[in-house]
Amino acid sequence: MQGQKYLLAFVITAAIFATAFYIAGRLDARRIADIRVAQEQVSVDILSLETQFDLLGSLDCLTLSDNPVLSEELNSLANRLSIAEQNLGNDNAEVVLLKKKYSLLEIKDYLLMREISQKCTKFKPIYILYFYSNNGDCPDCRRMGDVLTYLRQTYPGLRVYSFDYRLDLSALNTLITLRKIDNEKGLPAFAVNNGRPIYGFKNLQEMETLIPELKTLATSTTETL
Amino acid sequence: MDIGALGLYMCLFIALYFEVFLLISFIEHAPSKKEDALPRHYPSVSILVPCFNEEKTLAHTVESLLALQYPQDKLQIVVIDDGSRDATQAIGRDYAHRYPESILFLQKKNGGKYTALNLGIEHSHGEIVGCLDADSFAAKDALIEAVKRFESDENIMAITPVMQVYKPRTALERMQSVEYTFGIFYKKMFDNLSAINVLPGPFSLYKREVFKQIGPFRHAHNAEDMEIAFRMHSHGLRIVNAHTSFVYTTVPNTLRTLLRQRIRWSQGFLRNARDYKHMFFNPRFGNFGMLILPFALTGFFAGTYTALYAAYHLLSLVSSRVTDTTATGIPPHLPDPAALNWFYINTDMMLFIVLVVLCLTVVSIILGSRIAQTRLPLKSFVAYFALFGFIAPLWLLRSLWGALLARESAWR
Prior knowledge:
- The complex is a heterodimer.
- By secondary structure, chain A is α+β, with helices and mostly antiparallel strands.
- Chain A contains 7 helices and 4 strands.
- Chain B has a domain at 1-29 and 135-320 and 344-412.
- The longest helix of chain B is centred in the C-terminal third of the chain and has 43 residues, at 286-328.
- Classes of the chains: A alpha+beta, B alpha/beta.
- The interface between A and B is medium-sized, with 38 and 30 residues.
- Chain A: This is Thioredoxin domain-containing protein.
- Chain A: The chain crosses the membrane at residues 6-24.
- Chain A: It comes from Candidatus Adlerbacteria bacterium RIFCSPLOWO2_01_FULL_54_21b.
């Protein structure tokens, strides 16, 4: 009888652990599904914009400059992916696949934005191509990410395209080659608009000095304490 | 998963297993309600009140004993002054003078609580010998309820009461009141398992033959109340909990005195556990050897580990936030409202397990308060959950350090 009680307590405890494991797993699965839906939405939006662009040949630039395309959706997607990566690990196959898809969407958005800015002279976007690694070989990447996140929140018009340098994706590798991002010079690395690559961590003040155009952007109502 | 988190999961598994086991015991044997019936027989009882510098509370303690609902000719109160340097001696003498038939006053050089108790045993004559710390007060029917419990089974050799905090006022006292209520549940469940591990100073009662059989109290690293319980188990003597016998005790009201008391208890446990190591995992000693002793020791180290793990992560987080803020130059700002979305809330497995452990803790406290027939106010719960996690690690670490250095702690 006594032995049965020891066993019963063990079974109940193990069951509680198993339930906790199951619930946590289900919530992670829901997060992944959520990201997938968001990616599909962004994908459709980009396709729609491209189609619109192709159909009209030129765009109503006034409308476009008022509506800075997909940056909000991409930012939200980036935050969600970051959480999924934290929970499931950066080597999780599902996370890697989602990151690849996200990177492709970013590249498409980047290309579309460049194309629009060439045709619409009034549309002068400010964007940063940011390259990081979270394989443990970039101790400053987290801080650099914090600075860029803060800038993005402060200046909603600023577009930040962040890419995992170590992600094995041919389109990304092409972008890295085209923008001459040299891994040997160290990460984090970033390029502002069409400028040459800048390497190493830069704090908020340094970034604001590096991108004087930021002053032309409207700031958000981000509250400071 | 890092090795540190794995260790934490193991600690949580142990804590959860223990709580589940005790709740199963509760479901098996829920405590009975108090009955109005009187004892069939009133054995003679001697209550020993060892005191050292207890001028503030001694009178109240003695008054509570004088007010006990018990035949006066069957009750002897023995006040033993262990070389106090305050007015304790005068108060004790005064009471002995006023109630010569009920109260015996003994005075000795300071030698520690166990020496005072042994002197009291020597000079008392009751069939039942009780102890009451001079900072505690028994309920009027506490003795009758305990005697009824003795009557229920002749093999019962010692009894512990239900111990509650006397009029908690400060946050620290309120924290302890919840902790004691939690302890009431634990004590009753240990009783169900025949594995009570301590006979605390406030109103534990022994049959006199216990001392004849296993000898008097020992120094026992200043934890004589724990050691005698260990020794009784090692001799197969039964200890039970009288859950209808209530006693109220004052508790330390400063952090310093609380830490001092708890370090003494914890070190006493570690050292007595070492002295009685032959009982660990020994089926001859039933649940006491197989469950309570191993879990108490594991709990000590698991608590220490959890505290160190939490402290390390908290300090790392704070230090990284400070260095990040300095390095990035980002001014303090409110988090993005989007971060309140469920997506960003941490929902890993550990969160759910910690929530289950906390829920079972609250259930145990509520069951404890039902046994004690008391209701804890919300602010006591707040004090407990806000303070205990920060204060307990201090005495755990300090007592571990003291035990490693073989440093004795004072009993007062």
